[in-house]
Amino acid sequence: MSPDLIVLDDAEAAARRVGELLAEAAHDGGHIALSGGKSPELAHETAAKLQRDWSRVELWWADERCVPADDERSNFAMAQRTLVDKLDVAPVHVHRIRGELDPEEAAAEYDAALRGVRLRLNVLGLGPDGHTASLFPHAPGLHVHERLAIAAEPGLDPRVMRVTMTPPMLANADCVLFLVTGGDKAEAVKRAFEEPASDATPASRIRSRDGQTIAVLDRAAAARLASI
Predict the structure, then answer these.
(1) Of 27, 149, 171, 200, whose CB is crowded by the most CB atoms within 10 A?
(2) DSSP sequence for 182-227
(3) In total, how many domains does the chain have?
(4) Is 193 among the domain residues?
(5) What span, in angstroms and rounded, lies between the C-alpha atoms of 49 and 149?
(6) CB-based contacts of 12: which residues, under 8 Å, 6+ apart?
């Protein structure tokens, strides 16, 4: 299923649009999952300004590096700094992946916590290689169906193992929302959102199972799309 594509002029406009959608979801309440990287930072800050009370939200992460919570590489630490610390009322529950644990232990703990959870919104990114969350090209985790979270190989960063939601959990959302900016991702965008699903481009396999999938792009990232 092809996602709905929203193409905006630049990276700032794309991030602000995702921030607006994130704020709307927080207002409605429910389970929201975030991702890491640089692109979501402005989206988080925008959402915190627009919706300052997140008391009806339970916060999750699509993936995490196996590092302590205060490590600069931590997705949790980034979201804490750019979103949670800026709110007047914090989420009712923050479900941190405990990256300081052994990866298999952290994944098992997170898998158990996710049982029975339906995401209101799942915010994802896309790497130049086509990965999303910590599902990298041809990763065995792309075909794991009995688990909701697994330990994952580190992909482009060989120093750090990861924990990631599996495809069934990533797809278990009312809305799967991709934020993708930058010309270095244009080829991956084309493969992820216009071409047939492939293990070579993991993001192409992630679509909301029974809801909406949206990709918010800047013009640089959308440059190779035939439909734009």
Answers:
(1) 149
(2) SGGGHHHHHHHHTSPPBTTBGGGG---SSSEEEEEEETTTTTT-TT
(3) 1
(4) yes
(5) 31
(6) 42
Radius of gyration, alpha carbons of the chain? 16
224 lies in some domain: no
> Which CATH number covers residue 180?
3.40.50.1360
Query: How many other CB atoms are there within 10 angstroms of residue 142's CB atom?
Result: 16
Per-residue DSSP letters for 68-97?
A: -TTSTT-HHHHHHHHTGGG-SB--SEE---
How many CB atoms are closer than 10 A to CB 118?
Answer: 11
* Side chain identity, residue 184: D
93-132: per-residue pLDDT in tens? Answer: 999 999 999 999 999 999 999 999 999 999 999 999 999 9
Helix axes 40-50, 11-28, angle to 10 degrees: 50
* Residue of 214, 221, 220 lying closest to 123 (CA atoms): 214
Tens digits of residue pLDDT in 174-208: 999 999 999 999 999 999 999 999 999 999 999 99
> What pairs with residue 173 in β-bridges?
119
Two structure tokens written together for 227 = 């439909």
Q: What is the domain extent for residue 142?
A: 4-218
Secondary structure element (H or E) that encloses residue 106, with its range: helix 103-114
* Residues 6 or more apart in contact with residue 182 via CB below 8 angstroms: 11, 218, 220, 221
